[in-house]
Structure formats: structure tokens, C-alpha cells
Amino acid sequence: MVTRLRDGWMFLLGIVLCFAILKVEGVKREDFKACAQSGFCRRNRAIADEAASSSSWTSPFELVSKTLTVKDNAVSGYIKNTKSSSLLTFEVQVLQNGVARIRINENEPIKPRYEQTAEWTLVSNLPAKTEAKIIKKSDNEAVIPMQVPGVESASMVIHAKPLRIDFLVNDTPVLTLNERGLLNLEELRRKDEPKLVDQSDSSESKVETGEWEETFKTWTDPKPNGPESVALDVTFPGFSHVYGIPEHASTFSLKETRGGENAHSDPYRLYNLDVFEYETDNPMALYGSVPFMVAHNPEHSVGLFWMNAAETWIDIVKTTETEGFHLFKHKGKTSTTQTHWISEAGIIDVFVMLGPTPKDVLKQYISLTGAPAMPPAFSIAAHQCRWNYLSSKDVAMVDAGFDEHDIPNDVIWLDIEHTDGKKYFTWDYAKFPDPEKMQNELAAKGRKLVTIIDPHIKRDDGYYIYKEARDANLFIKTPDGNDYDGWCWPGSSSWIDYTNPLAREWWIKKFKFDDYKSSTPALHVWNDMNEPSVFNGPEITAPKEMIHHGGWEHRVLHNVYGQIYHGATAKAVSVREETPKRSFVLSRAFFAGTQRYGAIWTGDNTASWEHLRNSNPMLLSIGLAGIPFNGADVGGFFGNPSTELLLRWYQAGIFQPFFRAHAHIDTKRREPWLFGEPWTTRFRNALVERYKLLPYFYTLFHEAHALGVPVMRPMFFEFPQDERTFALEDQFMVGPALLVKPVVNEGQTVQSIYLPSGPNGSQIWYDYFTQKKVTLPSSGQEIKTTVGIEDIPVYLRGGSIVARRDRQRRSSYGMVYDPFTLIVALDEEGNAEGELYLDDGETFDYEKGAYIHHRFTFKNNRLTTQLLNTEPIAEDYASVMHKVRIERVVILGSKQDNGKLSKVVVHDPKGVTFDAGYKISKSKIVVRDPKLSIVESQWRLELKYQ
Ligand code: NOJ
């Protein structure tokens, strides 16, 4: 009876909560903490205030120089807290690729502090350490030399009293730790023990500390370990732009947070939260967190990775020399960015990356946190989702809709309503009587199905997943040892503790075809709500005092929970067949390292122009933080977009890395043919363009996999010396060759675009669609173009070669054996180059050489190629691809002063020479069928002039 009553109440509560989640318009700011409502943020900000307000402020931390030793290629020693006299351990490792790792921990904590973020985040094969060397200059100064490829000299200079660490590249300081003296590590203590530090002179006495218990709205965080925060300031001398630390709906170049023009008033917060219908221009935490920042100026790029998975706040302040920045003089540089990193728990474990270019910094970051997974080919094509496609009939109708209207599509998605009562891995068989048949029908057209699997498990004894997890003790626990019981879509739920290796092992089995009933190889997965979202939890997430495997509080690892879950699912989907295949798993929550597992999207945006605009800076930040496979709900999740907005969103989305149309359950249907002509054609045209460019996108995903460079790139990645690109966030590069500036305003008819001039001032640009050379105005590099409703401003950079597949099919699968078109856009000197990477798109055979990687070069009127394969193309793959041709070569910008083109000669790999047909109009030459196989490289195509 009691249980029934309780269930009844819980049910009601659930209805109310779900109603709140579904209907509330706009973010409820008051559901989420500001820094002032978070004790550890307040305490550390108070230290910063005290430091700023007193000219005599010095850090209480000193390095005990005589303790510095070198062992196992690491430099270690002790730091003394002069206020408490206690010791901290200090360790420095220098890695061979220009990265330094600095760890600071309590020397003898009363219990261990959480250091395991490294386990979830770092790859096992970190770059080798350099032979550690320490040059003691004086009692107060020691130098550790660093090797940075591409840089003449680099070093780390440690000042002992007070502790300060400067990083120098070619004698220029580029990053300083503890320059402002804000290093703080709250030592663990027992509640009844007094603090070792004399409180009377401490800033903390002036703030309400919230050290042992803290209340937010109706929730009380009991904080059994008391205060345990860690903090450090990081200064980027000479840098006025810093980027990264997603996820925030804010500007790409990060704003100041403690005063200044147009600043945010709160620090940027990293705490994975379910913030539906979030506000833009806001540093509030969102679904994912990557505590990685890049600073860039025309000479240098540096990176800082703060490896901590607890709640984190980051303050940013910018100063100029005239304001009296006191440490360094920077020739010709005016601005310096000071940042303050504050985490609730854990240790200080930071990595400094010395670049020197933005691409180098990303490469260094990826060497730590792992290469982005090579996605299965279908997953970079178009996805069609909605909450919810209601039945298999509905799915069949949508599927057929694409074909009837000649619109390509690769994937149809099923949201939570496809399950039996939100019990994941089950089907509502009344609506989906034969899921296998449904998948097979999609698969017959080369299409896939994605189903949603969330981490909350309905507490229902009749549900096998719940019973198995409960019996095997795999759920997150309450402090008193019970399974944590919270509220989510299914009602009363428990959450799998993926930090438990047994839970991951078990989870992986749940995706085997005989376990996940009615699933087939055509099914891939969507991991949602994995921040984790808990409707009746503090800030809509799990209480921090919940307990994970090993006795760790949720507090210490909250931000990495969703990443671990994502990783387990990606593994599970990949190993469900005998021969592992690449999985596609989309996650909402993310952390450093997420890139190893799959894609992420930016959660519950709205169908507004503002959110369309916002998608560009958000995705640029996420890509810069090492997660290249990212996208936003195309069309906007909440609300009904106007047809114009929807079309403009498609036109932007096709150039963003992950394209998925998605919509809330309460919205009107918006499949792209529902608006009638001429709209259907317009939507089709946009999607067809993405499909043509799939070879180029796939090549970029491979580059991201190999080097970490984002697919959707900030302008400064390609033009690192051009300061005018540094704050650009409404235009971006897709790879090195395409510049895109989507139309993101209602009724817009003119678009201005900044076309950088390149280092030697002679960059040519072509309009991607008309293929005509752009004439720049005499006033500079900014052009204006009229934009009709079908126009997407896209420009092709002179000097690049882009591979396309121009035949329209209904899915990417249908294009596997289609021939290629090469677009050769010449630069001022008549040269161009570009790459094409190709593999089977689904297995891991590329690791064994089953791929083709061309570098095409056009020079001296000749097109040639070099295979970049590190080993010969695996024979079976070569034989499968042998018949695939290059069917067309389009050369843009050929010089009139070459004379008259008399013929195009092809020298094929067998030594046969023949003339190829061509058409020439002005400076564009289209060579037809040069009869070249895509697996071969020993050929050349030559333009002969009279
Ligand atoms: C929240 C997700 O952000 C949204 O995309 C999804 O449709 C709903 N959950 C329902 O599963």
C-alpha cells in the first residue's frame, strides 16, 4: 500500500516534471548556479579579488628549490604553502612533441584525491618524455629546456619564491602559470579540525564559504569531504584572443568575465547540464565540457589543458600594457589575457602545448587525448530525425518521401517513443511490429536506422536491463549504499555506473544482436541525457554526493561521466559483429577525449535565427577543442521555423560537420518536401551539394583523425597571421579549400564576406558555385554579394584541389563506385594541390592499408598525383576500386597568357599517351573522361598550349 501510494506520488511528480521540461519556454536561469551560489567559486574568486586589490599580494606558495630532483625523466620536488607550512608535491614532465605536464597534489592528504581523470582522458601511448634536464640558475630560478618541433628554442623557467612558471618560445614568454599568485589547493581535513591557515587575514573570512554544506534551492549538498577545490591562474602574455573551453553559447573568441566592455559577468562554467532552450551570449554551463583553451596571436599559438572532470569555472581578464601589465614587455603587442581556472575537487594536472601554429597545438592536444574516430562513411551524410517517428509505417513513409522527391538521405532516427515505456533496448511492438524488416528495408537502399539509448534505467522488476544491472550491482549508489533513484523519462530510474569496469563489460554485451532484440547491423545509436540529466536532481543532474565505483563521489568525475558512457556504447556497437566495424554513436554530453568515440550535437536549441547564428561559433569552439564531428539540430529543436529559416539552416548545416534535421515532439512536421515547390527543390539542392562534397568531407575527417585539425575550421587556422580573422565567427573554412559564410538573418539579401589575402598578399578566390574568379574591391578584402534565397556564399581558395562525386544518388552507399570530379582552382602562379582519402567506409581495414590517399598537384600545366599511403594499397581493396574513375577535371583560373590551349594529353600508368576531350570557356577548362583509375598514381595530365 505504502509503495503504491509512493508510486502514485512519484507518477504525479513525474508528470509535473515532464510537463515542465516540455512546455517551459526559455531557459530557467534560476535552475542553474551562478558563481556567487557556488562556495568554491566564491572562495577562489575572493582570492583573485584580494590579489587584485593589494599591491603587496604574493602567492603563499614557494618551490623548495633544493628538493628538485630528476627521476624517470621527470623533474619533481616540493612546494611549500607558507601559510600552513604544509607541502605539496610538484612534478614536471616534458614530452617530445612540445608539451609539458605539470602536476601539483597534496603531499600527504588524509585520503587520496581524485587523480583518475587521466584514466578516462589520456591515451595509453602518450608521446615519449624527453630526457629531463634541469638547469639551476640560482636559488630562485631553474630552467627546464623543452623541445618543440618547428621552434628554435623553448624552455620552462621556474621561479621559486613565489612560485611562478614561465614558458618561453624563442625567448618570448607565451604562457605563465601562477603569475597572479592564485594557485590554491584546499587541503583535505576532518570537519572538526581547524583550518591550518590563519583565517583572519584571509579573503575567505569575508565570504560565506559553503565549505561543509551548501544549499541551492531545495537541495543540500552535504559535502562530506569539506572544501577541496584547486585553482591556478594562467596568463597568456601578448595574446588578446583565447578560444575553446566549450560548451557555451557564447562568442568564439572568448569574452572577459570580470569587467571590461561587453563582458560576461560570471566566469565560463564547465559542468555538464541539461539546459534546454539555452540562452545565447551566455557563459552558463551546457551539456559538455572540454577544459582546453587555445591562445593565438600572429606569431604564436599555445594551448592549455586543465585535466579535471569536476565542476570548473574559468575567469578571463584582458589587460593592455598601458594598463600596467608588469611582468613582460611585448614589442608591438598590446594585450595580454589572464585566466583563472577553478575546479571543485581533484588535483592540478595541466598540460601546456607550445604549438607554434594552431594546427600544431591541436596535434599536440590529440597526442594526449586521442585521435578523433574515423567515422563510418554514411554518418557524415544527411540524417533525418524527429521526436518521434511514430511507427514503422511512418518510417516507411518518410523513407519513401526522400525517394519520391529525389532528396538524398542516409539515416532515419527513432527517439524515445519507439521503446516500450522508455525501456531502452525494447520496442513498442504495437507501433513497430517488425523492427528487423524495417531496418532491412532501409538497408536495402543503403540507409541506416539510429535508435536512442539513454543511461537512465527504468526501475521495473520486469525489465531485464534493470534486473541484470541491479543484481550485478552496477548502479550509481547513494552515500548509504542504495541504488540511486532519480527521475527521468521512464519515471523512477537508476543510472548505470560506467566507471565500473564490470558495468562497461556488461553494457558491451547488451548490444549483441541476440541481446538487443530486433537490432541489425543497420542500427546505430544515440546516447542522450548523459550529463546525466535527472529531472528531480539539483540543477537537473545527479547529486554530487552520489557514489561511484571505488567509493568516489560523483562530484569528482561528473563532467566525464557522459564520455565514459559514450565510449562504452561506441565500443559495444563496434564489436557486436564478429569483424569489428566502425560505430556511429551520437552523444549529448562530452568531455576531453570524446572525439575517440563519435559525434556530439549541441542539444536543445530553438528554431530561431539567433540559434542558427549561434551554431557557428559553438561548433567552431567544439571543433577547436578536439571534437571535429559536431553539429546542431538543423531547423532548431524547439518551435516551428519559418520555411525560410529552415532552408537557411539546411544551407548552413550542409557545411557543418554533422548534419541532422531534428525537432521536438510538439512541433509541426518538417520533412523537406512538406513545403511544396519551389521549396522542395531548394532543400534538395542544398542536400545534393553536401552529397557531392562527401569525398572532400571524408578526406577532412581523415585529416582530423590523423592530426586533430577540425573539419569546420576557424578562419585563423588557415590564415594564422591575418589578425582580421581572429574574431571571425560567422564565416569559417571547411578544410583548407572552402570558405563558407552562411546566411543567418531573416530576409537578408546582401552578404559581406572577408576573403583573406594570404601571407604574400596574393590569394585568389573563386565563387564555389559559379566557379568564377572573385574580383576584390580596391578597398581591400571584404566583398559584398547579393544573396537570393537559394544562394550560399561559398568560396574556393585558389591553390586548392577538391575531389567531388557529382552523380546524385539516394544515399551515400549508392555512390561508393561513382567516379570522381576534380576541381582544380589555380592560384596566382597557376599551381594547386589537394588530397583525397578513400576507404571502404565501414571497417577498420584502412589500418591495414585498405585505403587510397592521393595528393594531387597541379604545376607547370600538369596535373599529377602522389599516393600518400604508407603501405601499398591492400590488393583486395585495390581490385574492388580499380574500375572507379576520375571522370572529369575542372581547371579554374588557367592563364590566358599561356597562349591558346591546343590539347590535353594524358600519359596513363601503362605508358600510353592519348588526347582527352575538353571544353574551354574563358579561364575554365573542363577535361572529360581522362580514363584514369582512382587506384593509380603513375599518370599525368598535361595542358598543351600553342
Ligand atoms: C532531449 C534531447 O536533447 C532531444 O534531442 C530529444 O529529442 C529528447 N531528449 C527526447 O529524447
Automatic annotation (TrEMBL):
Query: A Pfam family for this UniProt protein?
Result: Glyco_hydro_31_2nd
The Glycoside hydrolase family 31 N-terminal domain extends over: 89-315
Q: Where in the cell is it found?
A: Endoplasmic reticulum
Write the signal peptide boundaries. 1-26
CDD domains for the chain: GH31_GANC_GANAB_alpha, GH31_N
Where do the Glycosyl hydrolase family 31 C-terminal domain residues begin and end? 708-802
Q: GO terms for molecular function, please?
A: carbohydrate binding; Glc2Man9GlcNAc2 oligosaccharide glucosidase activity; glucan 1,3-alpha-glucosidase activity
- DUF5110 domain ranges (all copies): 821-891
Give the pathway: Glycan metabolism; N-glycan metabolism
Q: Name the GO cellular-component terms.
A: endoplasmic reticulum lumen; glucosidase II complex
| Signal listed as a keyword | yes
All copies of the Glycoside hydrolase family 31 TIM barrel domain together span 372-700
Q: Name one GO biological process term.
A: fungal-type cell wall beta-glucan biosynthetic process
Q: Does the keyword Ribosomal protein apply?
A: no
* Origin superkingdom: Eukaryota
Q: Which UniProt keywords apply?
A: Endoplasmic reticulum, Glycoprotein, Glycosidase, Hydrolase, Signal
The entry's family comment says: Belongs to the glycosyl hydrolase 31 family.
The name this protein carries in UniProt is: Glucosidase II subunit alpha
Q: Which organism's genome codes for this protein?
A: Bifiguratus adelaidae
Specify the taxonomic lineage.
Eukaryota, Fungi, Fungi incertae sedis, Mucoromycota, Mucoromycotina
